[in-house]
């Protein structure tokens, strides 16, 4: 009896430590810190205030959309159209301003276009019972084509009144866009963990049949997740276009993969039912730190793509380990399989 009691605190301590390690956010934060320290040893400019602000500013656009993508992935869906919707929202705002619309109203129009795009996608997915992969792949081309029609291939000037969103700095040099990003992360985390909508999204992604039996409006919940990511893609489009000063039809090319990577690295499961907005924030930051490290260390951009791909694969494996799905890959099981094949 005394022996069991003596080992209980140790087991409790080990259990708590393992539980903490298994949290995606804790692991990501540790990776970011270690990577930052290693880069600092090679180039002490990494920890400069200006460089850290620059890292955050470069991940703002991807990070904002990753907040919405996390909700979509938790609901067991996916959105591949976010880069094109970003561009469509930005050029819609620029075109509205160019036709004499008030700058703030033009911004609202751009964000509204993003929300409408999300509603269209969600409606087709739910009412048409079509895979979100296929629908958003189609929307990717539709939205990109619409941007070309609106702009005729020419950049749209953004209102100077909105330039502070992408270029302004406050509180001793903190970019306004970074503050917007952090606010959206906090609101997203609260929405996911402290509201009925967030609980419904998790329930739908975990088991939609059980959620439907419990009275949760499964279809409406899924549509709202697409409206949310479309709205955030619109916000990201405004931030991006005000950073560069113009709205271009080619804006956001390839952002779909970065957004999904940030969300998955942050702990969002492709099988639905699980995800973290804080994790998505850290996932976006990890991608930013990696890219910044390659620039500071003057390494090949091809290695950059390779490293990001490895990080995504490792994050997916970590998620499987956390769920206990890698037990069949143990050394003992491997030896047993080899022995069985040999005996056969």
TrEMBL record:
**Which CDD domains does UniProt cross-reference here?**
TM_PBP1_transp_AraH_like
> What is the official name of this protein in its record?
ABC transporter permease
Tell me the superkingdom of the source: Bacteria
Q: Where in the cell is it found?
A: Cell membrane
**Its membrane topology, per UniProt?**
Multi-pass membrane protein
* Keywords on record: Cell membrane, Membrane, Transmembrane, Transmembrane helix
Q: Does the keyword Cell membrane apply?
A: yes
Which Pfam families does UniProt cross-reference here?
Answer: BPD_transp_2
Q: Which residues form a coiled coil?
A: none
* Residue ranges of the TM segments: 26-43, 55-73, 80-98, 104-126, 133-150, 170-192, 223-246, 302-318
